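Appendix B. Raw example, untouched.
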Amino acid sequence: MFDFLVQLKYRKCMDEILNEQSDRAQEDPDLAKALSYLQKTRKLTYLPGEYEKKYKKIKIEVYRDKDGFPFVQFEGKRLYFPKHFSKSWVAYAYRTLMCEQDSESPHCYFSNAFGAPAGGEILLDVGAAEGIISLKYVEQVKRIIIFECSKDWIPALKKTFYPYREKVSIVSKYVSDNSGNDCVRLDDYIVNDTDLDGFNDTYIVKMDIEGAESVALDGSMKLLESRKSKFLVCTYHRPEDAKKFKKLFQSMGYRTQFSMNYMLLGWSVLPNVFGKPSFRKGVIQACPLKEDCNCD
């Protein structure tokens, strides 16, 4: 009976989403693609798009090192996961990461218009988790500063970036609008790190911190005002963040654009986290107006 009720609720949710968004989709090609995918598959997913299928059956080889930490080979480098992760869970997590960073995914940070690091930038990876973005660009950038507050990830991150330990710092704190105890403002960190040239350096700031992006940006006003850096900020955790962040960046002299396509949040086992089911833009990309880019 329980399974039947769950399936009934699932189908009802699907029908409500499709019906509520049908009119809006006529003026939004990305939304139309998402609805078409849902209608065809009859499956609720937070990444509704054909690209998702590419990663379903990819075989992932998972290894363990002499200390028992699981890892996968990512572009010729070891990407480690917490020691307690099973091999099957690592494989699932890695497939998800690859799907999220597909060029058509709304969770993809970089795009043709907002390209990968050119060299010489400092990457601030705020909410790194396993650190796949930092690992991907570790050889292109001048330096990486990883901010990750979860104690579970720190040992794995240290293993992943051990070969690059001279250029990668790992900060086990929450990035916020204040500094003290377990928190740090980006502005304060930049001023106090003697290896940095303050706000004269060029930064790429990537943020994915479970809905705390707004307070982290509040603690980054001097960095924003310097208008020398680029920002890649997740907007899907809270329904108002996409419009809020676009307004903030544009008011401070930045071009903005969103990653393509939509994420669908709110239908999962965590409705209280994401609210009512809704389609949301995944990442806002912002660069200073003086930069030669194709943002809006």
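End of appendix B.
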